[in-house]
Amino acid sequence: MVAFHEIEQRLRVLKGSLIANPASKGDLTIVKEALVELGIRTIPDELIGFHYVMDGFVWNGIEIYPFNSGNFTHEYSPKEFVKAARNVVEQKNPKWVCFGAWDEEYFAYRVETNEYVIADRIDFMVFDTFSSLAQLLQYVIAVRS
After folding, report:
1. Which end of the chain is more exposed for a tag (fewer CB within 10 A), N or C?
2. Each residue of 112-128: pLDDT tens digit?
3. Chain centroid to CA 103: how far?
4. CATH class for domain 2-144?
5. What Å distances lie between residue 53 and 1, 30, 42, 83, CA to CA?
């Protein structure tokens, strides 16, 4: 979780960042129940830990979707986590948990390979893989900095 606090601090000094308040256990319960209805039974602990530090953020075209959009205290709020997951499942990719996006790519957790990916929104072609969420977030922030 230290990495997520460091990422949050970095975002706070970057111009134009919108950071959501931390998610609650109630937010997580609602998300888990909704994902089970979609046939997704796994949400990685690392992703949960991130949302307990900040329930998503928006900066320079990067969007990490919140468990609860009410945790954003700004006029703009990105798509909600469950809506994004439902969209990906409906596109016939039920083993991916979509948690964010930039440009024309999704950020997702691939259940079957236990890795985080940046993949095309249309055909799900994978562009980059990461062994942790922290690595993916550090990468995308560095690319946009």
Report:
1. C
2. 899 999 999 888 899 99
3. 14
4. alpha beta
5. 8, 18, 20, 21
